[in-house]
Specification:
Chain A: InterPro entries: 2Fe-2S-bd, 2Fe-2S-bd_dom_sf, 2Fe-2S_ferredoxin-like_sf, 2Fe-2S_ferredoxin-type, 2Fe2S_fd_BS, Beta-grasp_dom_sf, Diverse_Oxidoreductases. The complex is a heterodimer of chains A (about 160) and B (about 280). Chain A is α+β, with helices and mostly antiparallel strands and about 160 residues long. Chain A folds into two domains: about 80 residues, Beta-grasp domain (Ubiquitin-like (UB roll), Roll), CATH 3.10.20.30; about 70 residues, DNA polymerase, domain 1, CATH 1.10.150. Chain A is built from five helices and five strands. Chain A has a five-stranded mixed beta sheet with strand order 2-1-5-3-4, with helices on both faces. In chain A, strand 3 and strand 4 form a beta hairpin. In chain A, helix 4 packs across helix 5. The longest helix of chain A has 16 residues. Chain B is globular and about 60 Å long. Classes of the chains: A alpha+beta (about 160), B alpha+beta (about 280). Chains A and B meet through strand 4 of A and helix 2 and helix 4 of B.
Chain lengths: ~160, ~280
């Protein structure tokens, strides 16, 4: 069973870890880096709670081995706020009641960050298509969509 | 759940990957490409390979290029590469339209075209595309390259003609003629879910409107996607109208051997084939 020394670059900070090959990126972020904002729901790629950005694109952190992420720039929900100032998406999620229990929220935020960084003027139909990637079982998607649209407008100002 | 323990090998050259597979395939070692099907299977402990040969760092396997009228897709080219037109003409548009049906956005950033063909899920989109367009699979091992026709590649449910020590290094898709028209229709229960049935039609028509070339395939219903020569023959030489399209769709639905829900899947087959043909004739 192979053990590996890996350096993960998360939100601009290098974390040097020793871990077994089977350790997922999601578990390494939580247990190795102490960044528990990334949540694990289904652990097999269906729910999207563990969505993080890998070199700018959203991926399921449960469907990657931590050893595969060496050399990549990883971004997690902990990297969104600037000090006490929330990211416009985080603020919009609060303002538009886009979360209740909050379990899926870190994944939705990272998914939405990638959407708006790729296309700040993303059409609504494309937003709906992208947001279907993750599961929310209490708020529903209408308020999440509203929040992402509001954040897009706020970021354009 | 978490995967069972395994040894991870990360070769950087094709030769190294082939050597590792020769050594570990007899011990149930597997290739790890995008990992979007293998890693869930491992997390659920459906698969417990003791060795993974991770090909993501192998030089040259990420190439996606057009050479001599053929789109060559390397082993680690991701689904997302096809969302923007990856090939000139109708082939690029076809691949972009189909790619939007594959799982979800984040999965498409990691999952690979070739990996989908190797996994050989009956409900996966790329194997249908490969079958309809007569792709050629290029398998590699210590014995060298071996070219396999699409029709001989997927042998059934999760079963391909690849030997355990062979790596699918590339797939070749012939470009489509500029006047080719395609239609793709899929029914799934939820956004991004597996297809219950899907059909891909590619037609070329002469100046008089008659079909000169017809390709028609069905996926998600039988253990492996395939073309339906009888329905294609009905279309060839004819001017497709609503009645002919319905007759061709009926023919596919009658010929198909659904794995389950026979009546429903036949009805669905008729619908998706009809819609794919209507798109291709529009």
């Amino acid at each position: 069973m192979s053990e590996h020394a890996v350096t993960l670059r998360v939100n601009g900070i290098a974390h040097r870890l020793q871990l077994p090959a089977r350790r997922s990126l999601a578990d390494a972020l939580r247990d190795g880096c102490g960044l528990t904002g990334t949540h694990l729901g289904c652990e097999h790629g269906v729910c999207g709670a563990c969505t993080v950005l890998l070199d700018g694109v959203p991926v399921r952190a449960c469907l990657m081995l931590a050893v595969q992420a060496e050399g990549a720039e990883i971004r997690t929900v902990e990297g969104l706020a600037q000090g006490a100032t929330l990211h416009p998406l985080q603020q919009a999620f609060i303002d538009h009641h886009a979360l209740q229990c909050g379990f899926c929220t870190p994944g939705f935020l990272m998914l939405a960050v990638a959407m708006l960084e790729e296309d700040p003027d993303m059409p609504e139909a494309e937003m709906v298509h992208r947001l279907s990637s993750n599961l929310c079982r209490c708020t529903g998607y209408a308020n999440i969509l509203k929040a992402v649209q509001a954040a897009a407008a706020a970021m354009a100002r | 759940m978490k995967p069972a323990p395994f040894h991870w090998h990360a070769p950087t050259t094709l030769a190294e990957a082939a050597a590792l597979l020769a050594e570990y395939a007899p011990q149930d070692g597997r290739v790890l490409a995008g990992g979007q099907s293998l890693l869930p299977a491992m997390a659920l402990r459906i698969a417990r390979p003791p060795h993974l040969v991770d090909i993501n760092r192998v030089a040259g396997l990420d190439l996606l290029e057009v050479v001599d009228g053929v789109l060559r897709i390397g082993a680690v080219v991701r689904h997302a590469a096809f969302l923007r037109e990856a090939a000139p003409g109708p082939l690029g548009a076809l691949l972009a339209a189909v790619a939007r049906h594959i799982a979800h956005w984040p999965i498409r950033q990691r999952g690979t075209f070739c990996g989908s063909l190797c996994h050989a899920d009956p409900a996966a989109e790329w194997p249908l595309v490969a079958a309809v367009l007569d792709a050629v699979m290029v398998a590699h091992s210590l014995r060298g390259d071996r070219r396999i026709a699409a029709a001989a590649f997927q042998r059934g449910l999760l079963d391909t003609a690849l030997e355990p020590d062979e790596l699918l290094r590339a797939v070749e898709l012939p470009l489509l003629a500029a006047d080719a028209r395609f239609g793709f229709e899929e029914v799934s229960r939820r956004a991004g879910d597996f297809a219950q049935a899907m059909a891909l039609a590619v037609l070329r028509r002469g100046p008089d409107g008659r079909v000169t070339e017809a390709r028609l395939g069905l996926g998600g219903v039988e253990p492996a996607p395939r073309r339906f020569p009888q329905a294609e023959a009905m279309l060839r030489g004819a001017i497709p109208d609503a009645a002919l399209i319905d007759a061709a769709a009926h023919s596919v639905a009658q010929a198909a051997q659904p794995m389950e829900d026979e009546g429903y899947r036949r009805a669905l087959t008729r619908t998706v084939v009809q819609r794919a043909l209507l798109q291709a004739c529009a």
